[in-house]
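ESCALATION

Customer reports they have been waiting on this structure for their group meeting. Please prioritize. Original submission:
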Amino acid sequence: MPRMLRMPGKDVLPPGPKRELVAELYVYYREAGRPPLPHIETLTQKMPNPHKVSRETIRRLLTGQTTSQWAVVDALVRALCELQARAPDDRRWPEPDDQYEEDNPETCREYLRRLWNDDIDGLEPGEAPTVPPAVSALPTSGGWGGTPPASTGGWGNAPSQPKQDDPWATGTPPQLSQQTRGYSDEPPF
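Update from on-call: job pushed to the front of the queue and completed.
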Protein backbone atom coordinates (compact mmCIF):
# COMPACT_ATOMS: atom_id res chain seq x y z
CA MET A 1 0.00 0.00 0.00
CA PRO A 2 1.43 3.39 -0.96
CA ARG A 3 2.34 5.75 1.81
CA MET A 4 0.12 8.84 2.12
CA LEU A 5 1.78 12.18 1.71
CA ARG A 6 1.90 14.59 4.62
CA MET A 7 2.43 18.32 4.65
CA PRO A 8 6.16 18.87 5.23
CA GLY A 9 7.06 20.24 8.69
CA LYS A 10 8.57 23.68 9.16
CA ASP A 11 11.95 22.07 9.72
CA VAL A 12 11.82 20.55 6.22
CA LEU A 13 9.98 23.40 4.46
CA PRO A 14 10.56 26.68 6.31
CA PRO A 15 7.99 29.50 6.25
CA GLY A 16 8.10 31.51 3.05
CA PRO A 17 6.64 31.64 -0.44
CA LYS A 18 7.29 27.97 -1.24
CA ARG A 19 5.55 26.85 1.97
CA GLU A 20 2.56 29.10 1.12
CA LEU A 21 2.28 27.44 -2.31
CA VAL A 22 2.59 23.90 -0.93
CA ALA A 23 0.08 24.64 1.85
CA GLU A 24 -2.45 25.83 -0.73
CA LEU A 25 -1.91 22.71 -2.84
CA TYR A 26 -2.45 20.63 0.30
CA VAL A 27 -5.83 22.28 0.84
CA TYR A 28 -6.99 20.77 -2.46
CA TYR A 29 -5.18 17.48 -1.86
CA ARG A 30 -6.84 16.96 1.55
CA GLU A 31 -10.26 18.07 0.30
CA ALA A 32 -9.96 15.50 -2.51
CA GLY A 33 -9.46 12.78 0.13
CA ARG A 34 -5.67 12.38 -0.27
CA PRO A 35 -5.98 10.32 -3.48
CA PRO A 36 -3.15 8.03 -4.54
CA LEU A 37 -0.65 9.70 -6.84
CA PRO A 38 -1.24 7.26 -9.75
CA HIS A 39 -4.93 8.22 -9.67
CA ILE A 40 -4.07 11.95 -9.88
CA GLU A 41 -1.60 11.19 -12.69
CA THR A 42 -4.34 9.41 -14.67
CA LEU A 43 -6.75 12.30 -14.17
CA THR A 44 -4.26 14.84 -15.55
CA GLN A 45 -4.24 12.84 -18.80
CA LYS A 46 -8.04 12.48 -19.12
CA MET A 47 -9.20 16.01 -18.34
CA PRO A 48 -10.20 18.55 -20.98
CA ASN A 49 -7.00 20.26 -22.17
CA PRO A 50 -4.88 17.46 -20.68
CA HIS A 51 -1.35 17.99 -19.49
CA LYS A 52 0.33 14.80 -18.37
CA VAL A 53 1.95 15.11 -14.96
CA SER A 54 3.95 12.19 -13.60
CA ARG A 55 3.34 10.87 -10.09
CA GLU A 56 6.91 11.78 -9.17
CA THR A 57 6.32 15.40 -10.19
CA ILE A 58 3.08 15.43 -8.19
CA ARG A 59 4.94 14.07 -5.15
CA ARG A 60 7.70 16.66 -5.53
CA LEU A 61 5.16 19.50 -5.86
CA LEU A 62 3.26 18.38 -2.76
CA THR A 63 6.45 18.05 -0.72
CA GLY A 64 7.93 21.37 -1.84
CA GLN A 65 10.89 19.85 -3.68
CA THR A 66 10.04 21.60 -6.96
CA THR A 67 8.02 24.51 -8.25
CA SER A 68 7.62 23.31 -11.85
CA GLN A 69 5.96 25.13 -14.74
CA TRP A 70 2.54 26.74 -14.40
CA ALA A 71 0.98 24.22 -16.83
CA VAL A 72 2.01 21.39 -14.48
CA VAL A 73 0.73 23.12 -11.33
CA ASP A 74 -2.49 24.05 -13.13
CA ALA A 75 -3.04 20.45 -14.28
CA LEU A 76 -2.53 19.23 -10.71
CA VAL A 77 -5.01 21.69 -9.21
CA ARG A 78 -7.56 20.94 -11.95
CA ALA A 79 -7.29 17.20 -11.22
CA LEU A 80 -7.66 17.76 -7.47
CA CYS A 81 -10.66 20.04 -8.04
CA GLU A 82 -12.18 17.40 -10.34
CA LEU A 83 -12.03 14.89 -7.50
CA GLN A 84 -13.95 17.35 -5.32
CA ALA A 85 -16.52 18.13 -8.05
CA ARG A 86 -15.32 21.72 -7.84
CA ALA A 87 -14.31 24.09 -10.63
CA PRO A 88 -10.86 25.68 -10.28
CA ASP A 89 -12.33 28.95 -11.55
CA ASP A 90 -14.85 29.13 -8.69
CA ARG A 91 -14.28 31.59 -5.91
CA ARG A 92 -11.66 30.37 -3.49
CA TRP A 93 -13.86 30.69 -0.40
CA PRO A 94 -17.53 30.66 -1.39
CA GLU A 95 -19.87 32.27 1.10
CA PRO A 96 -22.90 30.34 2.43
CA ASP A 97 -26.20 30.83 0.60
CA ASP A 98 -24.40 32.41 -2.37
CA GLN A 99 -24.01 35.66 -0.45
CA TYR A 100 -20.68 36.80 -1.84
CA GLU A 101 -18.80 39.59 -0.20
CA GLU A 102 -16.53 41.51 -2.50
CA ASP A 103 -13.57 41.44 -0.11
CA ASN A 104 -11.93 38.45 -1.85
CA PRO A 105 -13.37 37.59 -5.26
CA GLU A 106 -10.21 35.64 -6.19
CA THR A 107 -10.69 32.21 -7.76
CA CYS A 108 -8.79 29.10 -6.71
CA ARG A 109 -6.69 29.21 -9.86
CA GLU A 110 -5.93 32.95 -9.58
CA TYR A 111 -4.81 32.63 -5.97
CA LEU A 112 -2.64 29.60 -6.71
CA ARG A 113 -1.07 31.34 -9.70
CA ARG A 114 -0.20 34.34 -7.51
CA LEU A 115 1.42 32.02 -4.93
CA TRP A 116 3.28 30.22 -7.72
CA ASN A 117 4.65 33.53 -9.05
CA ASP A 118 5.62 34.62 -5.52
CA ASP A 119 7.51 31.34 -5.07
CA ILE A 120 9.40 31.76 -8.33
CA ASP A 121 10.27 35.38 -7.51
CA GLY A 122 11.05 34.56 -3.87
CA LEU A 123 8.59 37.17 -2.63
CA GLU A 124 6.80 37.06 0.69
CA PRO A 125 3.04 37.68 0.69
CA GLY A 126 2.45 41.42 0.53
CA GLU A 127 5.75 42.10 -1.28
CA ALA A 128 4.53 40.96 -4.66
CA PRO A 129 3.74 43.57 -7.29
CA THR A 130 0.05 44.06 -7.89
CA VAL A 131 -1.73 44.49 -11.17
CA PRO A 132 -3.22 47.98 -11.52
CA PRO A 133 -6.97 48.17 -11.99
CA ALA A 134 -8.19 47.93 -15.56
CA VAL A 135 -8.48 51.24 -17.38
CA SER A 136 -11.74 51.76 -19.20
CA ALA A 137 -11.58 52.31 -22.91
CA LEU A 138 -11.39 55.89 -24.10
CA PRO A 139 -14.59 57.13 -25.75
CA THR A 140 -14.48 57.62 -29.49
CA SER A 141 -16.64 59.75 -31.71
CA GLY A 142 -16.66 57.58 -34.81
CA GLY A 143 -14.67 57.50 -38.03
CA TRP A 144 -11.94 55.04 -38.74
CA GLY A 145 -10.33 55.18 -35.37
CA GLY A 146 -12.50 57.70 -33.63
CA THR A 147 -11.26 61.01 -32.38
CA PRO A 148 -8.02 60.53 -30.51
CA PRO A 149 -7.69 62.06 -27.05
CA ALA A 150 -6.11 65.51 -26.87
CA SER A 151 -2.41 65.24 -27.61
CA THR A 152 0.24 66.92 -25.54
CA GLY A 153 2.57 67.63 -28.44
CA GLY A 154 4.68 64.48 -28.27
CA TRP A 155 6.91 64.95 -25.24
CA GLY A 156 4.38 66.49 -22.90
CA ASN A 157 5.00 70.08 -23.98
CA ALA A 158 2.23 72.28 -25.30
CA PRO A 159 -0.96 70.85 -26.75
CA SER A 160 -0.74 70.31 -30.49
CA GLN A 161 -3.04 72.13 -32.88
CA PRO A 162 -5.33 70.11 -35.10
CA LYS A 163 -4.03 69.74 -38.62
CA GLN A 164 -5.79 72.07 -41.08
CA ASP A 165 -6.64 71.16 -44.66
CA ASP A 166 -7.15 74.79 -45.75
CA PRO A 167 -3.91 76.77 -46.22
CA TRP A 168 -5.88 80.00 -45.59
CA ALA A 169 -7.22 78.72 -42.27
CA THR A 170 -6.54 80.82 -39.19
CA GLY A 171 -6.95 78.13 -36.59
CA THR A 172 -10.72 78.28 -36.34
CA PRO A 173 -12.97 76.70 -38.93
CA PRO A 174 -14.61 79.16 -41.34
CA GLN A 175 -18.20 80.05 -40.61
CA LEU A 176 -20.84 79.49 -43.23
CA SER A 177 -22.68 82.60 -44.30
CA GLN A 178 -26.43 82.37 -44.12
CA GLN A 179 -26.76 84.06 -47.53
CA THR A 180 -24.13 82.15 -49.51
CA ARG A 181 -23.99 78.85 -47.69
CA GLY A 182 -20.32 78.61 -48.69
CA TYR A 183 -16.83 79.70 -47.72
CA SER A 184 -15.58 83.23 -48.06
CA ASP A 185 -13.15 83.84 -50.89
CA GLU A 186 -11.41 86.54 -48.91
CA PRO A 187 -7.98 85.66 -47.48
CA PRO A 188 -7.68 85.98 -43.71
CA PHE A 189 -5.19 88.94 -43.89
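Sent to customer with the following note: The chain has a mean pLDDT of 74.
Escalation resolved.
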